[in-house]
Design a protein that fits this description.
Blueprint (H helix, E strand, L loop, with lengths): L3 H22 L16 H8 L7 E11 L8 E6 L2 E5 L4 E16 L8 E6 L3 E8 L6 E9 L12 E12 L4 E15 L7 E12 L4 E5 L2 E5 L8 E15 L2 E14 L7 E11 L4 H17 L3
Antiparallel strand pairs: 1-2, 1-15, 2-4, 3-4, 4-5, 4-6, 6-7, 7-8, 8-9, 9-10, 10-11, 10-12, 11-13, 12-13, 13-14, 14-15
């Protein structure tokens, strides 16, 4: 007989695979875009990956390992699959869909002297829908609703509430820099009456400086506040940063990221440190010139093939 954790993990990965298939189905030209024509786009891709509302399909896989200085605190791991899909809804506006699917390992406290245990499975999904201008000025922005879906496969892995609220992002990209902020607040509107209400705030300030050959340095701490928590346990404020690079695996453009944060402020019994590792698969749209270049190379290859 399969254990509950095995069933939960199988369900979580089925959801992830379904989501990735849906992303690719929404972009029939994705695989055709994996050509040498994207080699000249490294600088543009650096900035596009740092812009939450860019006109770029991306599939980030982000792993956050949380741990503390207290030897009694066991590590929590969260793998976020968070595809970003831009959809043109008019000549002036884009709809950006950002769908976060967390897969979580959550340690569970036991009585002293008993073996350590934990729950592993799907957490609560969070889709966000941004409306953003297709041709922004120096200030790039997007606004829309965020939802929290009670999809967790175990009570330890989610909050058991349907929630919603506003979300906003604003940034600017002068020269080699990307400077911006993303913020949202989620309130519960339905769900299990036995679970606590949800009223939580999140803001992510991101600062990146782009270097040569696709390298960049930066910081993107995620500051959160649980307004339902007791005094002294409301805020989590991390401090840190890291390094990343836009490169290619074969013909596939990717963005790699490694960051480390220490929580200067955090609730009691919460992790004191976080290590963030991320790989983002990038699917840039080709310009008319790049498409012509791609077609020209394909015709040249066909002409060179033996008849």
């Amino acid at each position: 007989m399969k254990s509950r954790n095995q069933v939960s993990l199988k369900t979580a990965w089925m959801c992830v695979l379904t989501q990735l298939v849906a992303v690719l189905a929404l972009s029939p030209a994705v695989w055709a875009q994996q050509t040498p024509a994207v080699e000249a786009q490294t600088g543009d891709l650096q900035k596009a990956t740092q812009n939450p509302v860019s006109n770029l399909i991306s599939v980030p896989l982000q792993n956050n390992t949380n741990f503390g200085v207290n030897p009694g605190y066991r590590n929590q791991d969260v793998l976020n699959i968070q595809p970003v899909i831009p959809i043109g809804i008019s000549k002036d506006w884009n709809l950006l869909v950002r769908w976060i699917t967390p897969i979580i390992y959550q340690p569970v406290s036991n009585a002293p002297g008993t073996p350590e245990t934990g729950e592993y499975g799907l957490g609560d999904m969070q889709p966000t829908f941004f409306i953003s201008p297709r041709k922004p000025g120096k200030l790039i922005w997007g606004v829309g609703p965020i939802f929290q879906l009670p999809t967790a496969t175990n009570t330890y892995l989610g909050q058991g509430k349907l929630g919603t609220g506003p979300s906003i992002v604003a940034l600017t990209q002068p020269g080699h820099w990307t400077l911006g902020v993303l913020a949202n607040n989620v309130w519960s509107v339905a769900g299990s009456g036995s679970r606590p209400d949800v009223n939580q705030f999140l803001t992510q300030c991101f600062i990146n400086y782009n270097l040569q050959k696709g390298w960049f340095i930066g910081m993107a701490p995620i500051i959160t506040a649980n307004w339902e928590a007791s005094h002294g346990n409301v805020w989590t404020v991390p401090v840190g940063g890291g390094i990343g690079r836009v490169t290619k695996f074969g013909a596939q453009p990717v963005s790699l990221l490694a960051q480390f944060y220490g929580n200067a402020v955090h609730p009691a019994n919460a992790p004191a440190w976080t290590m963030r590792l991320q790989i983002s698969f990038l699917f840039p749209k080709l310009s008319k010139e790049q498409k012509k270049m791609m077609l020209g190379k394909e015709l040249k290859q066909l002409e060179q093939e033996p008849k």
